[in-house]
Amino acid sequence: MYLLIFSICSAFIISALFLYRYGNIPRQHPLVTVSVLVAWSFSFLIVFTIPLDITATVYRQCLKENNVTESNSTSEFCQKPWGMVSEEVFPNLWRIIYWSSQFLTWLIMPLMQSYLKAGDFNMQGKFKSALIDNAIYYGTYLFICGFLLIYIALKPGVTLDWQKLKAIASSASNTWGLFLLVLLLGYALVEVPRSLYNNSKPGYTLQQAYFKLSKLSSDKAEAEETAEDVLESLQSLNIIIPSHHQSRSYVDEILKKVPTELMEKAKRSVRAGDGGSGIPSEKALIRLHRQVIKSLQVLQRTEALWNVQVEKILYLEDVEMNYLSSPPFRHELSRPSTCNPMLQWYWECVVKSPFLKILAGATALMSVMVVWSEVTFFSAHPVLSIFANILNVAKHNYDFVTIEIFSMATLCYLCYCAYSTIFRIKFLNLYYLAPHHQTNEHSLIFSGMLLCRLTPPMCLNFLGLMHMDSHIIKVRLMETFYTQIMGHMDVLGIIANGFNIYFPMVMLAVCAATWFSLGSRILNALGFQQFMANDEISSELVQEGRDLMVREKRKRQRNESALSRRRDLASRDSNTNTAATNFRGLLREGGSGIGYNTNGNSDELSPDYSRSLSQEINARFGLSTDETLSPKRKNRMQKWFILTLFVAVIAQQSSAATCRFFFDQFFGYTCELNGVEVTTENENLVINTDNHVEGQNDTTVMGFRVGDAILRFFPNGILQQFPNMYYLILVNSGLTALTPGAFNGGVNLGVVTISQSEITTIPAGVFDPLVNLGVLDLSNNRITEIHEDAFMNNENLLDLEINDNMIERIPGTLFRSQRRLENLGLYNNRISVIEDGAFSQLESLVIFYLRDNRLTELRTEMFGEELPTLVFFNLNNNLLTSVPRLPTRAPSLKYIYLIGNYIEEINVGDFTFAYSNITNIELSDNLLSVLSGEPFEVLESLDTLRIERNRINSIDNELFDRVPSLYTFYMDGNSCASVRFNNIRSIDQDQIIQDSLDHCFYNFFEPQVTAVCNFVEDESFGYTCEVSDLTFFTFRDKFAFSGTHMPGRSDADVTGIRVLSGSMVRVPPSIFRTFPALTSASLQNLDISVVERNTFIECGRLSFLDMSSNRVQRLVQRSFENCYYLEELILDNNRIAEVQPCGIFLLNIYQTRRISMLNNVCVNTVLYNYYDSWLIDDLDLFVNPYFNRCYSLFFMFLDQQQTN
Question: What residue intervals traverse the membrane (predicted)?
Fold first, then answer.
């Protein structure tokens, strides 16, 4: 009994391990996991228990031959085998296994496979599609069965009963399985020994791996192309199907399955006008859904297999390298090792090859025995089957241990040959068992079906080899329980005659075809390349794989080098943290400086926006333009500048220059130029590089910045001396002019910052050599004119900043080459003229700043027909007198800011079709006197409307009815004389936020809520208030605490609050007012849906905030304002789908070291490159796509190698 239990456990464990290796259990359907696990377990269980059944049969035969009953089994010959079970166990076990397997393989799994493949959007539709998909499959079987039954029924002298029908069904199943077995065994019996022998030859496995990598590269490219085509079709439907259409929910369901980065790529490929005009049918959406699922699965699998194959080749190359060296085992790239290097070297370089050759010889001998026995097992007299002879000898001696071991070894080898072929089969790229959790559900089910159909006939074939099947040898003998229940190796009567002739012939034919590689040769001829030694095509693919691997290794080496430099810097250089602290202090200093508010006053309600990369570089490397710099620091900078000039004069202004080389945390190995002044054009400057950091040289320099050097002109020679430079930072360098040819040799430059200098013009062609330039910052100069061909050759620009200059005119062709530009900054200039077509080519533009200029109008002709990706448009502080005319289509536009203009009225038709998807409109500080609802009717998605500090004395009573989507409404600083109370009551109190209305509505909702505190000493929070059953409904709810303090404690001692249960749709600021020393707050599982601005206005000391497992859907501007000391913010497991705009909620929490937003939606985030993120140590955002897009520009410039 113990052996049977051990066999059952072993079969289950092996099946579970295989399922873990190939499947992705957490993501796949539970029914798939259970059904495949059962199918595989039963298949392995049959293999493990057949030897026990054979032993029991031999034992029963011994008892019968010696006339001994089992109740008195004391014969000296018939010793009961160890692990013997009662006679009732095996019949019941075989019945359960056989019929469960047949039920799974012929009914459940085909239906399940079709169900999972269906693209319908509900369970009923999926099941219906599965039935239709299987109708032909089942119909074919029913037709054949019906034909056979009619044939048998009409045949004279033949009667049908249940037993005969079962026999016919069993024979049909056996016939199918035996032909499958012939193919699999005929291939594996030759291929297993050959593959072991080939793997023992040094270099063969590596060549084969290169070949597979080349094929994987083609598969990967094809998968990417297919996915792009399918997602472009999806994006086209996403454009043409409106939000109110009944099919919209289907499209949204499909979109949920697509990674954000892939969808963004599809959006850039599909223009908003290319979607077509017809709404697709539900069947078309179902078909597209099915295509999306399949293409994404194939793409994910090929990418994962590519990485796995690369890792395998890296290891094989290490083995090849170690053959020529002495122990221990060494790796070319730094790789984690789980084995002792000395043992690993002896195994790979000494032991493995002979061991595999011995194993190849043993398996070859076993294969010869199997083939011989397969050819001869029909011969009963004489017995020619080798296995039958060995079993007969053991039976004659009643050696049950030998019988069990020999049967188990033989059957396990047959099982390995057949099953390994199944697990490696790749059927037209539809069914493919890929390791490392990359097998899809359809392939798992397909393999389960094959095993269920293959295992019973394989075991019957094994019993035939052993001459344990009476129907084969035509001799009456005691049958095994297996043949009693599952039948014999019978085939359909139509092909039964001559089966013992053609079965061996087919087996031999398949073995011969495998030996001569006929299958591979045929596939090669048909264009399906297979690896074959000394084949020209295989050699080319091997070389291609080797070239791919060289590029992959270079990329990994560069990445390792960059990571190593950053780790070294983090461990050795503490200046970064000091700089970061000072940097945060600059952000928080007084209100007289130039802040990030549109009107320069932190008290105003206009939103803050994160700075561009250029401004961050200014703050890190240059003399800041922020007026909050102390006079002492300015004086020190001036004295240092004078001292530098004096030293230069003493040195007779020699052109010899020195660099201070160091590792910068973000720009890599950097040169800081000192000790030189360049005052003439085309001066050739050679930098003394004797002081390189150990192991570094000119070719590894990634960043260049100016220290105390003065560069009136950019000198020749620098870019040639440092050919791989990626970052060129010329902040406060003294540049007065840019001359053509100054940047020759800068083909690798990706980031160029030339700010806080004296440049007045940008001539044509000056940036032409910088073909890979991604970020260009020309801010804080004195530029008055830019030639229309200045950026003609910079097609890869993503971020262009020309802020804080004196530009008055934008030529119509200035940006004609910037189709990839995403961020354009032209604020704080003197622009009054924009020629037609100036922005018409900016088809990838996302962020656009035109604030603080002298524009009086904007016309559609300036933008062309469409700006498909524009999300954010800032026109604050211009001279506009009416709502600007935007391009005909701007489908992505969400935010438009018109603060501080001269708009007097908003008329019907001002908000054209381009505004249809707008969510935020800022109209504060204008001259509006009347607010009518009719012009806003077309704004179906309007979320936030701000009209503070206008002259409004009348609001249309139907405004809020006409704009049902309105969520936030600000109107402070208006007279509101004619606004009646029912204007606001028409909106559901939980829909519109009342935190900024003036005295007309200020105390609209003020119910009192009282909560009872249980005061405790908490290990993490300190003296803590724990509250249960806390319920709020509106933002204006007043809040009070009650409860008995611990002795000697008061409200001023409370440092933590933990709400254990309740429902808080919103969090009122008054909840924190009672405890002024609060540092920690836990607000989990409370159904919080919105975090409004000023929510935490009373939490000036809060350092830890956990709001996980709520229903937060958005983070609005200044959600966490006043949380200056917040160090850890946890927002996991919410429904965050939008941040207004991306990163703004981070702007006022300078001390934060960890932000966690795992498991959110985040699909509607404004795409803004927020660069202050480097102040945060830990961003746990990888499960959701939020920062993937927002930070793409920033991370692209951290290291040149990362752009790959």
Answer: 5-23, 30-50, 136-154, 174-192, 355-372, 401-423, 443-465, 501-523, 640-663
Does 607 score more than 70 pLDDT?
no
What's residue 98's pLDDT?
A: 80
- Find, among 860, 862, 898, the residue nearest to 880 by Cα: 898
Cβ-based burial of 856 (10 A; exposed 0-12, middle 13-18, buried ≥19):
middle
Taking the C-alpha atoms of residue 705 and residue 753, their distance in angstroms, rounded to an integer, is 9
Average pLDDT over residues 771-794: 91
What is the distance between the alpha carbons of residues 88 and 96, in angstroms, rounded to a whole number? 13
Residue 186 or 1092, more confident? 186
Residue 390, SS3?
A: helix
Question: ∠ at Cα 117 (115, 122), nearest 5°?
Answer: 55
Question: What pLDDT is stored for residue 679 in this prediction?
Answer: 78
DSSP conformation class of 913: G
* Tokens coding 1204: 């790959």
What is the per-residue burial (b if ≥16 Cβ within 10 Å, else e) of 298-316? bbbbbeebbeebbeebbbb
d(CA 1014, CA 96): 59
Q: Which residue in this structure is represented by tokens 């087996």?
A: 507
For residue 42, count CB atoms less than 10 angstroms from its CB and return exposed for 0-12, middle for 13-18, buried for 19 or more: buried
Q: What's the CA gap between 1157 and 1133, in Å, rounded? A: 7
Of 367-381, 874-888, 990-1004, 1066-1080, the range with the lowest mean pLDDT is 990-1004
Per-residue pLDDT of 118-149, as tens digits, reads 767 777 777 777 777 777 667 776 776 777 67
Q: How confident is the model at residue 403 (pLDDT cuts 50, 70, 90)?
A: confident
CA-based angle 671:673:678, to the nearest 5? 145
Whether the Cβ atoms of residue 774 and residue 798 lie closer than 8 Å to each other? yes
Note whether 808 and 784 are within 8 A (CB). Answer: yes
Residue 1134 tokens, joined: 């919410």
Question: Which residue type, as a one-letter code, is found at position 63?
Answer: L
Query: Taking the CA atoms of the chain, what radius of gyration do you get in angstroms?
Result: 39
Q: CA dihedral defined by 469, 471, 476, 480, rounded to 10 degrees?
A: 30
pLDDT digits (tens, 9 = 90+) for 749-773: 999 999 888 899 999 888 988 989 9
Confidence of residue 175 (pLDDT cuts 50, 70, 90): confident
User: Before 935, cis peptide (omega within 30)?
Assistant: no
Q: Residue 896: beta bridge partners?
A: 873, 921
pLDDT tens by residue, 621-647: 343 333 333 444 444 444 444 444 444
Question: Phi first, then psi: what are they for 42, rounded to 5°?
Answer: -65, -40
* pLDDT > 90: percent of the chain: 11
Q: Annotate 904-973 with DSSP letters as a single string.
A: ----TTSS-GGGTT--EEE--SS---EE-SGGGTT-TT--EEE-TTS---EE-TTHHHH-TT--EEE-TT
What's the number of CA atoms in the CB half-sphere (13 Å) around residue 204?
Answer: 14
Token pair of 557 as six digits: 């080496």
Q: Where are the alpha helices (DSSP H) in 916-973?
A: 959-962
Burial status of residue 155 (CB atoms within 10 A of its CB: 0-12, 13-18, 19 or more): exposed
Are 847 and 872 within 8 A, CB to CB? yes
Report whether 1112 contacts 1091 (CB < 8 A).
yes
For the question of whether the overall pTM of this predicted structure is more than 0.85, the answer is no
- What CA–CA distance (Å, rounded) separates 1008 from 335? 62
Q: What is the mean pLDDT of residues 570-577?
A: 47
DSSP one-letter code for 107: I
CB atoms within 10 A of CB 39: 27
Q: What is the pLDDT of residue 365?
A: 94
For 588, left (φ over 0), alpha (ψ -120 to 50), or beta? alpha
Please give the Cα distance from 411 to 796 (Å, whole number): 63
Q: Kindly list the structural domains of the chain, giving each domain's residue range(s) and its CATH number in brackets, ordered by start.
A: 2-202+329-516 (no CATH), 646-805 (3.80.10.10), 1008-1203 (3.80.10.10)
Amino acid (one-letter) located at 571 = S
- 773: phi > 0 → left, psi -120 to 50 → alpha, else beta; which? beta
